[in-house]
Specification:
The chain is α/β, with parallel strands linked by helices and 326 residues long. Helix content is 45%, strand content 14%. The protein has 9 helices and 9 strands. It has helices spanning 5-16, 31-47, 58-63, 85-96, 134-149, 155-187, 202-214, 253-266, 288-311, and strands at 24-29, 52-57, 73-79, 100-105, 118-121, 194-197, 223-225, 243-247, 270-274. It has a 5-stranded parallel beta sheet, sandwiched between helices. The protein has a 4-stranded parallel beta sheet with strand order 7-6-8-9, with helices on both faces. Helix 4 links the parallel strand 3 and strand 4 (100-105). Helix 2 (31-47) runs antiparallel to helix 7 and helix 6 packs parallel to helix 9 (288-311). The radius of gyration is 20 Å and the shape is globular.
């Protein structure tokens, strides 16, 4: 189902035009869904002077609702199944406050869909069509919102980047395969594996540690921001602790390079995935840093499945999730 971002954003802005407009966006979800909303928040925070943006864990948004939440706010929630209780509650909280509720889900007939003033459904797209997945959907909405509120200088460049995104990701995934196989063989018995990134890519590090390594593989892991690496975490670096670093192409790259330099000097088990090698720059010099999380998501999917194969530990196996009350 194609989403008409332009008309939806126009309708939202028109609905608040005579009542203070839209000046706040809250993103609220859980786990990988929360991480999937982060690039949209990062974009708004970097590119908008008129709109403030925040990302919340959905239950915290419900229990510690920001006082500024009001009719001039948009709340974006996400859950593929549409049944995540915390996300449903967050959308309900938005509606009670008079905010515009936008729900992203893969299931049209779901509790979350029922709480949206606008429902962005992305469930009928091919599995590896990243340009229409949840992360891209939230980002496209954020871009259109900024464009209509104040203008975005690189709007056409971003549209061109999205037009070739799936092709770039497809080639990146093919390029990544040999490295993923080698990585899996080298790390299949590791009890711990840290993942580092910065900028818009940090959410991919978070998803990799939280939803892949810890949830799906039961490997101890920590997402480390490259800008925070030298403020504590670098003290665990030695020849035995493995690190996976996602190196960006945007303004954050100097932070990534500094961290990689230290890791290679004092560590040994260091794997660097450089966005430049995966063709991210092709997406556009001014927009590639916002699109790079989508490319890294495609690449890390290869890495996670090959690691699972090498460990003989299916990504579908859980001890507690869906099996016990929690």
């Amino acid at each position: 189902m194609k989403i008409d971002y332009k008309n939806i954003v126009k309708e939202i802005l028109d609905s608040r035009k005579d009542d203070g407009g839209i000046d706040k966006v809250y993103f609220a979800a859980c786990g990988g869904s929360k991480a999937g909303l982060t690039p949209a928040d990062f974009f708004i925070s970097c590119e908008s002077s008129e709109i403030k943006s925040w990302v919340y864990s959905a239950k915290e948004f419900v229990l510690c609702t920001p006082k500024a939440l009001d009719k001039n706010s948009i709340v974006v929630t996400l859950s593929f199944s549409g049944t995540t209780p915390e996300a449903v509650e967050a959308a309900q909280t938005a509606k009670k406050a008079g905010a515009v509720s936008i729900t992203l889900t893969g299931k049209e007939d779901s509790p979350l869909a029922g709480q949206g003033d606008y429902v962005f459904y992305y469930g009928d797209e091919p599995k590896y069509q990243y340009s229409t997945g949840s992360m891209a959907t939230a980002l496209k909405f954020a871009i259109e919102l900024v464009q209509q509120v104040e203008g975005y200088a690189h709007y056409e460049e971003m549209e061109n980047g999205f037009a070739i995104l799936d092709d770039v990701i497809g080639k990146a995934r093919a390029y990544a395969l040999p490295g993923a196989l080698e990585f899996a063989e080298k790390h299949k018995t590791e009890p711990v594996l840290h993942v580092m990134a910065s900028g818009a890519n940090y959410n991919v590090a978070y998803t990799t540690t939280t939803c892949i390594l810890m949830e799906c593989q039961w490997i101890h892991s920590n997402p480390i921001h490259c800008g925070e690496f030298f403020h504590g975490p670098f003290e665990v670096v030695d020849k035995e602790v493995p690190f996976l670093v996602l190196m960006g192409t945007g303004r954050e790259r100097p932070m990534d390079e500094r961290a990689v330099k230290f890791l290679k000097q004092y560590g040994k088990k260091v794997t660097v995935l450089d966005a430049k090698e995966f063709g991210v720059d092709i997406l556009g010099a001014n927009v590639c840093e916002y699109l790079s999380p989508l490319v890294f998501t495609g690449v890390l999917s290869i890495y996670s499945h090959k690691l699972a194969d090498a460990r003989c530990h299916s990504v579908d196996v859980r001890r507690y999730m869906w099996h016990v009350d929690y």
